[in-house]
Amino acid sequence: MTSPVVVVGHQNPDNDSISSAVAYAYLSNELEARKLEANPAYKPLAHLAVRLGPMPPESTWILESNGFAIPTLISHVCARVLDVMTPNPISIAHSAPLIDAGRMLRQNNLRSLVVTDDDGFYYGLITTRMIAERYIAATDVLEEDDSNTSAVVDDLLASLKQRVGDLTETEVLVLDKEGLLKEAVEDLMASSLREAVVLDDDHRCIGIVTRTDITTRPRRKVMLVDHNDTILAPRGIEEADVLAIIDHHRIGDVSTTSPIQFLNLPVGSTATIVAMEFVKQAVEIPPGIAKVLLSAVLTDTVILKSPTTTQTDREQAAALAQIAGVKVQEFGYEVFTHRGSGGEISVDKLVGTDAKEFQIGEVMALVSQYETFDLAAVMEHEDEIRSEMRRLMELHNYEFVLLMVTDIIAEGSQFMCEGNRRIVNRVFNINCIGVGGTWMPGILSRKKQVAPRILGS
Predict the structure, then answer these.
(1) Which of 234, 287, 301, 346 is deepest in the core (most CB within 10 A)?
(2) Which CA distances in Å does 154 have to 136, 149, 159, 263, 426?
(3) Stated pTM of the model
(4) Is 196 helix (H, G, I), strand (E, B) or coil?
């Protein structure tokens, strides 16, 4: 069973992270389909967009309004039970005669069969070992009279008509298909049986895992978008095969075992790079994908106002808008409108939806950004916001938590900081003392205007 290649953005995903994953997975699947068309014997790899955190509201809107599924939430890319199990195992009814089980095991070269009840639900397992032990038990009569072979033959013949359910083992280890393989290994090795089963929510068996299966440790295939730092990547990234990285941030510390496609450009949005890849690969961009990509370009560049915005971003935004049949500025305002005013969103999402960790010497800090049309509405909840910031700081032992509430209209950010404010004050030459925060005119980009100065502190 081949697991799909997961295309994933960073933890605490923003719209660029989500949208780039969706669009790049679409592009990758189109390229796989092209390979299959050229070579019917080719086995294409499915690519699946996933996420590591809650959906930004504007991302939910843009995807659903264009008919795209919300990316599946995952917590890691470690090897799972799903990656090694034998799917869709052959089954036999518990009322079937034992001879049928033996014949099925032999014909299919199997060591075990799933046994089902009268309604087709999982009942247990029957294995070649169990049948062999039943036959061996038939020879016990020879210990009393080694000439009484006819009794042995009679018993063996009778066993062939015995019901499978009579020999079924029901005390079988049950594994979760999404469970970590390394934990399943420990459980299976400690089990008296050599097999374990994987059940679905309806109590039907969807897979079998044997001790032979767990001798291999598969590496899940991953593509990273909008980041290349292990601290922002899914848990278990060091166990995975990273096939590609598409990013517009500084070079981080994700390492690979072989050369990969690494696209890293100094532009305002990862979506800009993805859009360029469609053109490079001569793959047509559907209007829905164009809207998804354009929304990401505009949120990451604050409707092309951020200092991170490049001429390339403007050109790609114009091209995407033409495909989507929208006007850049109007569409940008519509996207931000679906983010909410700030008074409508919960404080945990306001602080945590677009938050990134930074290593500063030996300590960690969290810098969050929330962009809005209505700064006043956000600041009405300052007490709750600061309480959430302090909660995160204590929970993760951050040196400080800095929130940038960016006003798209006024083109600046209100800084709110909890924790060691001295670092922020020194770096930006301000006096961020707490209540009310500090207005930072012209500060729109965390990546270009905030992170470099903090990391250089």
Answers:
(1) 301
(2) 13, 9, 9, 73, 92
(3) 0.78
(4) strand
